[in-house]
Please model this.
Amino acid sequence: MPSSLLSPRTRGLAVLALVVLLLPLALRNTYYYEVAILVGLNAIVCVGLNLLIGYAGQISLGHAGFFGLGAYVSAILTARYGWPPLAAMLAAVAGVAMLGYLVGRPILRLRGHYLAMATLGMGIIISIVIATEDRLTGGPDGMQVPPLALAGFVLAGERTWYWVVGALLLGSVWLAQNLIDSPQGRALRALHTSEIGAEVCGIDSARHKVRVFVISTIYAAFAGALAAHYAGFITPGKVTFFHSIELVTMVVFGGLASTFGAVVGAAVLTTLPQALTLFKDYEMVVFGAVMMLTMIFMPKGLVPTIARRLHAAGR
Amino acid sequence: MATRHVLVAILSLWLASAHAQEPIRIGSFLAATGGAAFLGDPEQKTLEMYVEKLNAAGGVLGRKLVLVAYDSAGDAEKARTFAKRLIEQDKVDLIVGGSTTGETMAAVPLVEQAGVPFISLAGAVVIVEPVKKWVFKTPHTDRMACEKIFLDMRARGATRVALISGAGGFDKSMRAECLKVSKNHGIEIVADETYGAADTDMTAQLTKIRQNTQVQAILNAGFGQGPAIVTRNYRQIGISVPLYQSHGVASKEYIKLAGDAAEGVRLPAAALLVAEKLADGDPQKTVVALYTREYTGRFKSDVSTFGGHAYDGLMLAVEAIRKAGSTDKAKVRDALESLKGYVGTGGIVNLSPSDHMGLDLSAFRMLEIRKGDWTLVK
Amino acid sequence: MSAPFLQFLLAGLTIGAIYALVALGFSIIYNASQVINFAQGEFVMIGGMATVSLAGAGWPLPAAIAGAVLLAAAIGLALEKLAVDTARKAPVVTLIIITIGASILLRGAAAILWDKNVHALAAFSGDAPLNIGGATIVPQSLWVVGTALAIVVVLSLFFGRTLLGKALLATSHNRVAAQLVGINVRHVLLASFGISAALGAIAGALVAPITFTSWDIGVMLGLKGFAAAILGGMGSGPGAVLGGLVLGIAEAMGAGYVSSAYKDAIAFVGILAVLFFLPGGLLGRRSADRV
Model:
């Protein structure tokens, strides 16, 4: 088959689909499925965040806030107001997207560290509101969330959710890649290289930045709502700025401007703490050391570095 | 020649041990690091030490105990994942853990579904109310703490109370319980201030309370370093009405941090803290004195009620396993429910199908801090 | 001035001075390298914890503080040499992740080396509250504000009068130009980490008698220090100090007059508002970008 038919993009997606299909052979019990599902959910958020950080060159240190809002809005609408879960999820994602649009415009006028601070501040404000309004959100101890039901069929059990999340992850990656290869995507990359240069070419940078920001919040809110209904329980622990930093770390770790890098980064940094429990007291030290060493020796992130080595080796 | 004999000896010993009895697996997820390490650290030390001691004394039902413990760092998500790991992967017989309410509640649906007895070490009343089939707890509830404090306040003639609490789960839960039961005890809450989990200065909130001339007593529902800072600030700006703390600060750490400012502060706590001061006829004296001696001897640090709750949890579990004669989960659960008159560090425990905690208000003693030490209030 | 207002103001000034010191640490490293050192809060933690443990081992207080500051400075230098310098060709985002990894590692190491408990340090000159116009402060507050002032003066002398200080300033204005005039920017970067670490440690030791110290106290202080540095304009020394004081006072006033539950949210909304009108922070340089 001519190699041009299987472009890198399709190849990557095919590999991911293969992994999703074959992974259950290695998953021995529901605990393993749980970790796989968590990886999938984090990966969805990271794919969206990578569009913002890797391609558009912006930064957000508050994305856990959008993840949490998606989760809590969906949880509150189903648990306290009796909405059907699917409608609640859609409403949550739409609501967060609208919020993302409203705050995106003023916030994205900032650059670099100021933008980082603004997003950080926003994430923190969201987490404070969620933790304080305990009558609505259950406060720091969290609240129960009804499971997701589609036309009478209740989605429960790790195996079912594995396929749901796997399919949604593939869909998210495909969408992201479509965006990257579209004129929008090229405009974003131009923006990243030089905002002024892009504007000179007639690209409305503000509009594009806000658009990709909103898209990344949609990814985050969607994953958040899924996470809430899957776990049946949600606490503000997922809305902290620690989690925001974790998400950014996953994206950078896996490789900026690489959608598959985002997935790999999410996979590694979600499973690593589970694997490191054998170090007991030394878990944090080892985790920090692993992060530092990987970034020092693979500054562009895992996937681009490995891809480059393979490419060089293949020559 | 000798080498071959040694090899044979080693091989036969190894084979023999492979035929030995299946160990009893006790699972645990504790907040050993993170914001609640205050709780999880003594809990972990206690569990490790007593599993060792029980094994040295021959184990339970002739079987060795194995403790599988994970650090959930006060994070409910991690707690959930570890609970699942304990149930599915490590196949534990029973779980003693869950340092905070958030972590406990995240694991509750899992143990209920899998049918594994779970003894929680967290405080909020919501853990056992409504009663859940497989979930028990050893610490006194926050509602009991409110009631004990309100009774003492009334006895001193104070009925209008200012509440000050932090942002954590324990703080918010206790605050809500206190607001709920205040009317039943003739108490009126006239001020309600809060502070953040990592806040370092509460003079602003306390100044507002001081300005409120109605206030006759202050109740600080919190744990960690917040209450110590509240206590210092309270002394610094010269408030004269009495200050009550919660059982969340029931450890010498609080006195060390608050220093002289803690003089005269009252709080409800388990008898464990005043082991040497208990009357000789006190039913808890033997248990708490022994635990205090063993814990301080091994770890060279003061006992805290949190470690005591872990001790009670483990001992209740062992009692139930002995009574059930096996580690069959349903039998152990039934045995737990039938335990009566167990003397623990937290009080005398009487479990039943409708009461999965088993303590009443007498299990709480009212303590006052004098000269840097706990004293019993008669 | 009413007594409660004065009380809030004094509380805000005390914590604001600490934020200012941490913010200065961020600014100095940023100036030399464009890197945000997320491990800055951990230097504050090391300052406090090391002082507590040295003092507990019998060292006299000034020696304990000096020892803690030296330890923090050494760790800062090691961090720069082993991690940041080795990865100096990496994009800025990667360097930031490296410092995040370093902060996790330092926290984990602190939990093992010391413990997970909260510790108090004895106040430098006693606990007897001082009455000022109806408001009270502890003497330690005076130490905090006074030392912070002294440090700001020393730093401005350092940057204005010494060769190393001027080299640091030159690097922050234009790295290439600085290299062209013979400044070893790698040494400058090393020095910046050492100085920031020392600053953080001093702040940690100063504030431990008031706020207590523990293995994870660096997180919140680091975050607030970062916010203060941005508020004042990242890279501006006076901006860092101003940002710190404004943040501290805003928090105290928010708690006192609006809502104690939302005081942090109020402070952050305030920061966002400032950034909206002044995208470079209060005293931020209006930099010109080369197109």
In short: The mean pLDDT of chain A is 88.
